[in-house]
């Protein structure tokens, strides 16, 4: 079967405000997966692409908002300063496009590192607001005199699962991931915490809400543990092939 790049079905406004529902086409797309990685100038995407290719999962990079069309899931990476990432996301038109795909089409989205921080309301690193899709904030690690405690938090650490979740299947026993960050995600709502890590204090190294999730660590640098998490992400998509959400364009 040839590769299909466009699977999005949109319901547009026709004459006399009639709306046409096309449901039988769902059968054409059962089992189809296309993970699209957002390229908004905030990181090297090659290692993420390679991890999905190792898994045999179709993946491509979107440089423009309209290149999100055809995605069955979206990955939002991020490296660097929070404000720069937030501004780039908006300037390049991705912020509004992502909102359509995530909330209207209900596509799964996974944020990585600063991409996860962007899901929060904002960061102490700057003044720009985050997307605010998850009720959390991004704080700087506190200053301490302990010689064993350093900021930035660099290297391998455990991300203990805080909840049973499809992303963490097979990762229940102290999985180790690679971290590189000076700011951490903080939330007072336990139901949004995917996993926890300790570095001077306990912080949410993973957050989630509905079809949205974010992880502070870098799965693409975390060898077998990262590969397993990304594999779980791709398999969540298979569970969603029973329906295709359609947006009504006014």
Describe this structure in words.
With 250 residues, the protein is α/β, with parallel strands linked by helices. The protein has one domain: Class I glutamine amidotransferase (GATase) domain (Rossmann fold), CATH 3.40.50.880. It is 20% helix and 24% strand. It contains 5 helices and 14 strands. The protein has an 8-stranded mixed beta sheet with strand order 3-2-4-5-13-12-11-8. 38% of the residues are buried.
Q: Could you give the order of the helices and strands?
A: EEHEEHHEHEEEEEEEEHE
Rg, Cα atoms, Å: 19 Å
Largest sheet: 8 strands, mixed
At CATH level 2, the architecture is 3-Layer(aba) Sandwich
Helical percentage: 10-25%
Unreliable spans are 1-28, 239-250
Shape: globular
* Average pLDDT for all residues: 85
Helical stretch count? 5
Which CATH top level class fits? Alpha Beta
CATH superfamily: Class I glutamine amidotransferase (GATase) domain
**What percentage of amino acids are in beta strands?**
15-25%
Structural class: alpha/beta
Quote the distance from N terminus to C terminus: 34 Å
* Beta strands, count: 14
- In total, the number of domains comes to 1
> Which strand order spans the largest sheet, edge to edge or round the barrel?
3-2-4-5-13-12-11-8
The name of the CATH topology is Rossmann fold
């Amino acid at each position: 079967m040839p590769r299909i790049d466009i699977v999005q079905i949109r319901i547009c406004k026709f004459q006399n405000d009639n709306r046409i529902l096309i449901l039988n086409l769902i059968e054409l797309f059962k089992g189809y997966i296309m993970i699209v990685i957002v390229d908004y100038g905030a990181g090297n995407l090659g290692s993420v692409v390679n991890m999905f290719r190792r898994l045999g999962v179709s993946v491509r990079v979107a440089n423009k908002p309209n290149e999100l069309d055809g995605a069955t899931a979206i990955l939002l990476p991020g490296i660097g300063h929070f404000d720069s990432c937030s501004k780039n996301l908006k300037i390049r038109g991705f912020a509004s496009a992502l909102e359509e795909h995530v909330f209207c089409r209900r596509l799964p989205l996974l944020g990585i590192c600063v991409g996860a921080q962007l899901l929060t309301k904002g960061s102490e690193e700057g003044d720009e607001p985050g997307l605010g899709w998850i009720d959390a904030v991004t704080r700087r690690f506190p200053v301490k005199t302990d010689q064993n405690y350093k900021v930035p938090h660099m290297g391998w650490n455990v991300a203990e699962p805080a909840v049973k979740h499809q992303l963490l299947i097979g990762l229940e026993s102290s999985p180790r991931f690679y971290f590189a960050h000076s700011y951490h995600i903080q939330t007072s709502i336990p139901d949004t915490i995917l996993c926890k890590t300790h570095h001077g204090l306990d912080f949410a190294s993973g957050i989630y809400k509905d079809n949205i999730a974010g992880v502070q660590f870098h799965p693409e640098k975390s060898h077998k543990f990262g590969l397993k998490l990304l594999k779980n992400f791709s398999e969540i998509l298979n569970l969603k092939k029973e329906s295709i959400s359609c947006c009504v364009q006014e």
